[in-house]
Structures
1.
Amino acid sequence: MNRLPGIFAGVLLAFASAWLGLVAYPYLALGHMQPVPDEDTGEYFPPASPGLAVAGQRVYASNGCLYCHSQQVRPAPLSTDIEKGLGRRRTVPRDYLRAQPVFLGTMRTGPDLTNTGTRQPDANWHHRHLYDPRPVTDWSIMPSFRFLYKMRQIQGQPSDDAIQGLTGPMAPPAGWEVVPTDEAKALVAYLVSLKRNYPLPESPMPPAK
Amino acid sequence: MKPPSALPSINPANVPGTLASRERAEIDASARGPVLLFFGAAVFWLLVGSVLGLLSAWKMTHPGLLDSMAFLTFGRIRPAHLNAVAYGWASQAGIGTGLWLMARLCRVRLMRQKLLVSAALFWNVGILVGMLGILAGDGRSIEWLEFPGYATPVLFVAYACIGVWAAIMFRCRRPGHVYVSQWYLLAAFLWFPWMYATANILLVWQPAGGPAQGAVNWWFAHNLLGLWFTPIGLASAYYMIPKILGRPIYGYHLSILGFWSLAVFSSWNGMHHLIGGPFPAWMISASVAASVLMFVPVVAVAVNHHMTMSGHFDALKWSPTLRFTVFGAMAYTVVSLQGGSMSVPSLSAVTHFTDYTIGHSHLGMVGFFSMMMFGAMYFIVPRLVGWEWPSAALIRWHFWLVAIGVLLMAGSLTIGGLLQGLAQFDPTVSFRSSLEYATPFRVVRGISGFLLLAGHIVFATHFVRMLLKSGRRREGPALFAVPADNKPETAAA
């Protein structure tokens, strides 16, 4: 193999084939999907998220939640995800058309979050858990994200934002309260928005048990 | 029948009468500045990356460790670890090795040093900005591409200088055979800008629609391993093994088979990271098939290297370069066959999303690629500095610390990951149990991280002593032992 132009052309062609299949095709075919209307209600799925939840994606990326939490429900028999209650149906490309960026994830050091908003819709629970996970789930190895919160002395009336029911070593002393920063509020808005509980033509909801 | 390996073209030590030793010394002298700059920066980022990796590992068993500051949270130092190692250490060690191999094999002095020195400076500025960006919270959480959008153009400019330089070198090469290492280097230097530009444009600068992103992400991430680090590592092995043994590569046609099958199959592998994910089934099937077919290039290279070594394994007793390189080559075989098996859906169902994958990636990046680069650096640096490594004992410490460290790390994560995966697959077992099964193995991994860091510190110290030309002038190279038959070639070790 001494003919450089041949080697040159060969390595580019080999690479181009996969580039067409794994980059150009998904870019064109999957990258331009649209929400679909429900036949009965006319509602579009997947639904748009509130603005605060959209901003929360940035906080999720910034603090690397993806490195421990996946966001995908795989079909049987490749997995037991549905049997384990991660979601009632598998996730399909259209589920992610509003995600920016997409957090599919490759690790389940912590639980899958595809439907965390369905399982735990209570924002205060998420704040307590992010502020200090172990009083909420004693075996958790999630780090504390208390740097997204402020502890401050109560001036007059307690704040409406203050997290309720904090316990454990990081709980505020009497006369103090813990309030979320804008980042924490956005992150929790994003987490409770994670609900793939709508039907799609390519992945319909199974009938409720 | 005489094997085709007798072709002189595939043994760089054997090209008759093309290179007088004085000429070789001139080439080495011309490579000195840029290559040492890339190597020095690589060693620095290796230490940074190892400390960040060790801290990430211990945070998994001690979540309260250093958890009060945002920039030290697990979700930031873990990608900082990966990027320091991938772009700071591995890419720069690979570029330095590639530049030197290219000059030696093109048989011309390394030209346009200023272009390369600027490239090295740009590259490191890009990494520094990117690392600080991740720690400050600007990371993208796109695996293997976490650097914020303001850092990656700097890296790309740096790479463009290197690519242009490589093209100039190839244009100016002395006529003659193109050696197998050059095929791999040429390919890697063409593939990298393509994959890096595509991924940055479609994921960071002008993000594609959500459903397409996962595919682009893992097409890129797998190619970075399979078609950037792998060809550079193999180029080094194809050079070092015959060079030190003073005998040609076993099979010319095996070399060709290994090269082209890697080019065709590896580029299709990416989707095996997304089995069961939200993509058309054919994309994932194509990647699973290509991953299983990786058996072909891997076995071709393994047989080729093994048969070249065959009958000469005693050289591992004395040659540091060969010991590191052969360890790397063996790890390449194991990690690649393991990777193929992990893409089989029934095994993936258990190992996907677990520590098993982390063990696999460390076997690849440390056991294969880093060991290959250490071996190359033990060979190249004395020729650049004009000084032999001061201490064979330090090289021995380095080897055993890293070898035991990576085997312990990969072994513990593999077993722990299997238990974790079996628990996650079984619908009757709670998530909590999957975590508890993995924990003791994560403690062992944390300990193995200390061994790796210690090995890297030994190497960095030795590297600095080398640059300072410390110790007494040696007569010959620093070897582990006296070679049994003191052939002229063995002086190359």
2.
Amino acid sequence: MESVVKTKVVQSHTGPEAPGEGVLDPVIHAVGLTKTFGHVDALQGIDLTVPQNSIVGFLGPNGAGKTTAIKLLLGLSRPTGGKATLFGMDSVRDSLAIRARVGYLAQDPRFYTHLTARETLRFTARFFYRGPAGAIRARIDETLELVGLEDKADRPIKGFSGGERQRLGIAQAQINYPDLLILDEPAAALDPVGRRDVLDVMERLRAYTTIFYSTHILDDVERVSDHVAILDHGAMVASAPTATLLDGDSATYELTFRGNEQAALRAVRTHAWVSDITTAPQNGAIAMTVSVTDERAAESELLRSVLATDDVVVTAFGRKHFNLEDVFLQLVKGHRG
Amino acid sequence: MTTTATAVAVKSPLLPVHTSRWRGGLGNLVRKELGQWWATRMWWVQLLVWLVLLNGTTTMVMLDSGMAPDALVQEAVQTFLLVGATAIGIGVVLTIQGAVVGEKELGTAAWVMSKPVSRTSFVLAKLIGHSVGFFVTAVLIPSIVFVVEARFLLPVQLDYGRFALAVAVLTLSVLFYVVLTIALGCAFKGRGPVAGIGIGLILVGQFFKGMLPLPLVLFTPWLLGDTASSFALASRPDFNRMIPITATAVATLVFIFLAMWRFRREEF
């Protein structure tokens, strides 16, 4: 599987796609984005493209540079090299105009503790809207309802639990109907119920906005993300649609059978489009993984040729699907070693 | 690119703020800073402290029946203005040492700066909020109380015009320490250097201004208390009163500029 995943990296990470004809302009487009703290290279020239109306999971182990990258995009920090544009605007020069269209949730969101949740949302809303007061009030109520904080809206934040603070963080991040939501580890500090709630909110928002979120929870990425970007030690290891990453090399098939292994191998090897075969025992049967160069030919002939072999009973056949955890670990391991 | 925000703007009655490059978010931030003073117990705690400290002390002086009338007026006015210039300065540094540093430590500064807010606005709002707060609670109200007390307790009436001029000088002193503390907060990451440098500067002035050569002291805010007293009492000090006033005003403007310059380079 390792070789399959590595092949995928080369295919998927070919640098940022230049905004092309017939393709919507990307919301985020970074080229060679670099950040150095003293002698530490926090980001080593990363390329990143976030398409419009997508949910992009920004994966990486702790300390990979995810938060640093997010801060560069928001203009909270300055890059030491490279460039990023959001909505086609420069992240440094046009930071204020960019932030007017972005909602941001920090990894450990902090607010003024003397304010209530409602006052915090009113404070946030006033950066974007000057009135009318009734419409702002309605928007705040709508947002409180979205994150389920209606009953705690008038309590001071200092009494809020971590989960409640996180939900308030999501509420304030999307109060301005942002074109882009940037969420830094939105579910990291939450219990399973809180996590599910946050993912539900993200799914509800996907119809209206592009979401770029960092996480190290692979299940969440698998559940809600269209695209995945994987960062390790400040370097971009892979960036591809989630389905493509999970499929691994799309031309890899898995065939499970009982019977004569050598006969099955001979039958498969007769095809010129077979590039690699591995076999492994699996619960009394044999699992064969076949990499091919011609997907169409494989789908019509591979199974047929094995079925035609004497002493072989096929119990399962299909395209190989990878688990994101496997993909992630292999990519990171491959990058480090 | 058709954006959600654009689409919403068409449907929604919400009126967007027109973001200005240098004062983006200023009005909202000033409102928040003033709210921190006037919507919490901060205003009455501060007011109580200054009424007790300044007016309490001067009331005791005014009630001293053993002094000649002119000397009593002089003593009361000098006590109010000299104690005020020093004590309010220390109070300012102690109270707002965490105004910027605390927000950087806690992460609220990064949160606010993720909104369409200019860094200039963030610093200006702090300066405006705390300057107004200290002016009202530590200068204006105690000064009014002092004038009312003086009317009833002092044998010689104050010249209100001259006293107002003295209060203006005291206000400049307070403004200087607000600006200095905010500037130090922009420059340092911890409260220690902010409080240490701020209070150190005041105490050095208090203890050593008499020992240092006058030309050195003249260009510092240390003489503002004496300057204010000389205005209130129509006395002639042995220095040009305009020098400490001008020097402090210039230093205040320089520190405002430095605070903004440093905060614009802050990395969150």
3.
Amino acid sequence: MESNFNKENLIDDLVSGRISGEEADKALQQIQGDPALGSDFEFQQDLVNQLQTVRKAELKMRLDALPIEPILVGGLTATGLLKLGGAAITATLLGVSGYLLLSDQNEDLRNSIDLIPSKVETIDLGSTTVAQGPDKIQKFDLKGIQSLPLTVSTEVEPMLADETIEAELLAPEVVPPSVTELFEEETIKSPELDTNPDVITNTTEDATEIENVRDEKYPFHYKYHSNKLYLYGDFKGIPYDILEVHGKSGRVTYLSYEGEFYQLKNPIKGVKPLIPIGDKDLIKELEILKEEKAF
Amino acid sequence: MKDSEILTRISKGDEKALDYLYKKYYRMMTRIVLSNNGTEDEAKDIYQEALLAFWQKAISGKLVLTSKISTFIYSICLNLWRKELDRKGRFSDEEMKDEEIHPEHDKNEKVRIINECINALGDTCRKILTYYYFDGMSMADIAEKLDFANTDTAKTKKYKCKKKLDSMVKSQYSASDFLD
């Protein structure tokens, strides 16, 4: 005769899904042939189903608390937009400095500076004369530009020339926007980028409509339908609290009743049991919130 | 993080790897639902269900991955959303309301009692039992995760915790009510 211990193990393996296929079929046949074993199997199955529900709810709550980057414009995330903004600023700066260096069209904007000495050294290399500009990097000051020190390389490629070249490179007088102004324009404010995202704040906006339903088949349950909260069960006249809070990932609703907290997920499929929250840190925060709400 | 590294970490029950996956593929996976008439909340729910299904598979060592993790999760999301759309299509709003308010099953009193007992078990027992029965973790991994001396300690604790839960539930419900 099989010992109780072996029967327990058989049921445990079956309800935990650790045996399958032929082995599981055989075990099920054995259970069906023994009413006592069958009852115990059902009981164990109920326990395991609930343990699984509790763990799933716990993991979902963990995932809910994770900050997810919001999509702001056309599918771009905040980081994407910041990168784009940074690229735009860099391009603007490059454009401005390029313009300063190369533009010689507008006479009014010219501000004469010496980039290349007016007299270029000539080196006689026999039959060829090479005109050579300064090969050192020169710094120059642009009138009106205080905040953007520019370094301009004026390396000149050696070139063949029959005559001495005199060059004068002029820079236009341009007052560029200050760096602060540029960044102010490109700053992106994201709702997720809280200065202190860990803090849960209470909100009273859009208070949920609640209806209490008495149904013996649902002793302590809830459901959402058309954005209305249905609370099932006999609350014995003991007041309960609904806490609507803004966490890291949007609004989350909790029920506080008789010293326990329950998360109310919306949307949710059908009527679901109210499962007390086990996370001690969350409970502490919710207790603080509840106290604040009371005052 | 490479797929192989993620799988290794998940097989040890490392929840941070789950967080990493969740954040990494959130947009990609929720888009399946969002672009097929789903709301942001429905998209999140479907993605979480899919990710947890993947988590259970990966942690139990039953998963043989022949594609990228993202492809695997994507296909689960797709299937779950199809099922949900079917379910929605089958019932009109009123029918759904009726079904929900007048349920067919009557296990809910049991459920309430079991929940209360699980909650009263204490942190360690709750963790051991949920890691074992939901995550499908091995006793060796549970021992490592919960800093037990060895696998045997984990096995003994699991046995005692389960017995404790059994007796707590039974004490609140008479055998004739419960076991018939």
